[in-house]
Amino acid sequence: MSLAKQNFSNVVEDAINQQVMLEMTASQTYLAIAAYMGSDNVALPGLEKFFNEQSEEEREHAQHLIDYQNKRGGLAVIPSVPAPTSEWASAKNAVESALQLEKDVNKNLLRMESLAEDEHDPQMVNVLRSKYLKEQVDSIAEIAKLMTQLNRGGGEGLGLYLFDQTLLKSGVKGVIGQV
Ligand SMILES: [Fe+2]
């Protein structure tokens, strides 16, 4: 029994482990998208770099949740995650699937927040509201705008090349501005 544990329900403890699983799944999926973008017949270095960074960011989210689980006296369970797809129909299709993934993660964060409220756990609610829900909405807006810019250029040929080169040289803020 943890010495630190106070006002921390099993329901919230399980939900944190579930969220770790989702963050790790997102991390692995972004790693797979980055590998796809870096393959010789796709060769989009801007998107490759972007998704490698996204993958690391998701891994950091999982780490933060593991640290939080320990802080509260819960048991961090490190999950095995399902293997992501390794091929997409197009760059546009891969970015679309990333947007859907971010929305799925957001859905689970919202579910966690109401769960933590039901369990009268204001610390958990605070962590979710101040960090996770904010960052998640920012990520959704960022990928949505990236998607719009990709579509604006036509999503292939020269438009895609220019989009990717801008992403490579100026980063995501250079393509979409601040979110
Ligand atoms: Fe995340």
TrEMBL record:
CC per GO annotation: cytoplasm
Metal-binding in keyword set: yes
InterPro entries: Ferritin, Ferritin-like, Ferritin-like_diiron, Ferritin-like_SF, Ferritin_DPS_dom
High-level lineage: Eukaryota, Fungi, Fungi incertae sedis, Mucoromycota, Mortierellomycotina
Residue ranges annotated for the Ferritin-like diiron domain, each copy included: 6-154
The protein, known as: Ferritin
Single GO molecular function: ferrous iron binding
UniProt keyword terms in alphabetical order: Iron, Iron storage, Metal-binding, Oxidoreductase
PROSITE patterns: FERRITIN_LIKE
